[in-house]
Amino acid sequence: MSTINGPTTSNLSINNFKGIDADIARIIWSKLGTSPKVSMSEQGYIDEQGKPHGALVHLVFNQCDMGMNQLFFRDFWRLETYPHGYAKIFALSRELNYESTVASLPKILETYVISTLVVICMLVTLYLKYLLKIDIASASFKTLKMLLGMGIGKIPRGTMNRINFTFLFLFMFSMNIYLQSMLTSSLAAPENKFYIDDKEDLEAVIPDKYTISGPAYIKEFLDNKTIAPHLISSSFQDCISKIHINSNYVCLADSVLISDQAKSHKNIHISRVGIENVQLTFVTREDWPLRKRINELMQRLRETGIMTNMMIKEQIKSHFTLYVQTQDYNSTDSNLKRLTLESLKFDLYILAIGNYLSLVLLIIEKTLSKLYHKKRIDNLKIFRQTNAVANH
After folding, report:
1. Distance between CA 179 and CA 316 in Å, rounded?
2. Which key words are in the record (predicted)?
């Protein structure tokens, strides 16, 4: 009897199944001159304590003779045949739903930032009303212009008032730079919202309190020491359901499982690159008399090129299926890499230098204008005095 992945059923024919494992199994059983009965079981694996699970339990207790469509466990394991296919472990996460800038502002700016900003603007408005002797509406408009880094076109009278106004302008200018930096970093680099497309992306989200989950057998194939300790065992269906609820949830699953079950789930992003590469193999009962004969048939299929040809066709079909799924699921461009403050640091420096340079030029312009105006008045006085003397 043969065993493959899935819910528990029994008395199925090998002809009911498709795929490279079913095709090779049909060739093998036709060479043996018999036809097996097939039952469905979960993916077999061995946990950290060496205890078998899934299809391997049936093999250990002689409840079946061979397991089909099993992932390759380790090199030259005594119960395995030659690998006959390839598979990859992919990361599944929730597809991004981008919001407009206005709708996302309350999420970008914390509540205390917004409340503090409102209080400061109210105080600045009242102070401008006192300094410039204007109405509250004009003061509010000038406060908004200062917050946006614009000039207000009016300077108060009196030396002390001008000094206070200068400090106020510099304060609002610094606040403008702070808000621009916060908005730029938050909108360009949303740390809690991005696609997971490869192993590096998956490693990057671990410090951000992302939950990594998946079937228990996945852990056996994770060579990555950073990811494996954080994997939480759960069924594929539970994992998918939690992705829809929590955007900080990642599910790991093999390509065989994804191609069978992930098609029915929308708004799920499949990583473009596999996290780990694994192979498909048959597993057999150790004391099965036909084990040696099946291995010989598998070796012959490989040597004659039949298995290689079937593997190439299966790979093309598998990659095309995943490509179509990825195109369907990814309505937005996930090739864009996240920007960070490190990559924006140079641009922010240039922005700050440009803003401060503009302020310096404004002060120089005002100073030169006053000096020119004063010199013109002095020249006019001298001219008048000269004319008065000449008239006398």
Report:
1. 50
2. Cell membrane, Glycoprotein, Membrane, Receptor, Transmembrane, Transmembrane helix
For residue range 29-56, list pLDDT tens digits in order. Answer: 888 887 777 777 777 777 777 777 777 7
The 3-state DSSP class for residue 13 equals: strand
Give the predicted TM-score (pTM) of the model.
Answer: 0.50
Query: Distance between CA atoms of 29 and 38, rounded to whole angstroms?
Result: 12
Closest CA to 136 of 126, 150, 146, 147: 126
pLDDT score recorded for residue 76: 42
Q: What is the DSSP annotation of 49-111?
A: TS-EETHHHHHHTTS-SEEEEEEP-STT-TTB----EEEEEEEEEEPP----HHHHHHHHS-H
Alpha helices in the chain (DSSP H): 20-32, 55-60, 101-108, 111-132, 136-147, 159-188, 199-205, 236-245, 255-261, 291-303, 306-329, 341-391
- Comparing C-alpha atoms, which of 94, 50, 90, 79 is closest to residue 215? 90
In the block, residue with structure tokens 């299929």 = 301
Do residues 307 and 86 touch, judged by C-beta distance below 8 A? no
Give the single-character DSSP code of 360: H
- pLDDT-flagged residues of the chain (< 70): 1-11, 19, 69-82, 85, 96-110, 183-194, 224, 256, 259-265, 311-346, 383, 387-392
Beta partners for 214?
Answer: 233
**Residues 6+ away with beta carbon under 8 Å from 70:** 43, 44, 55, 80, 280, 281, 282, 283
- 161 φ/ψ sector (left φ>0, alpha ψ -120 to 50, else beta): alpha
Residue 3's pLDDT is 45
At residue 270, the 3 state secondary structure works out as strand
Helix (H, G, I), strand (E, B) or coil at 334: coil
**Dist CA 32 CA 13 (whole Å):** 16
Contacts of 53 (CB under 8 A, 6+ apart): 42, 44, 45, 46, 47, 216, 217
pLDDT tens track for 305-319: 777 777 666 666 655
| Residue-wise burial string across 124-139, b where 16 or more C-beta atoms lie within 10 A, e elsewhere | bbeebbebbeeeeeeb
Residues in the chain: 392
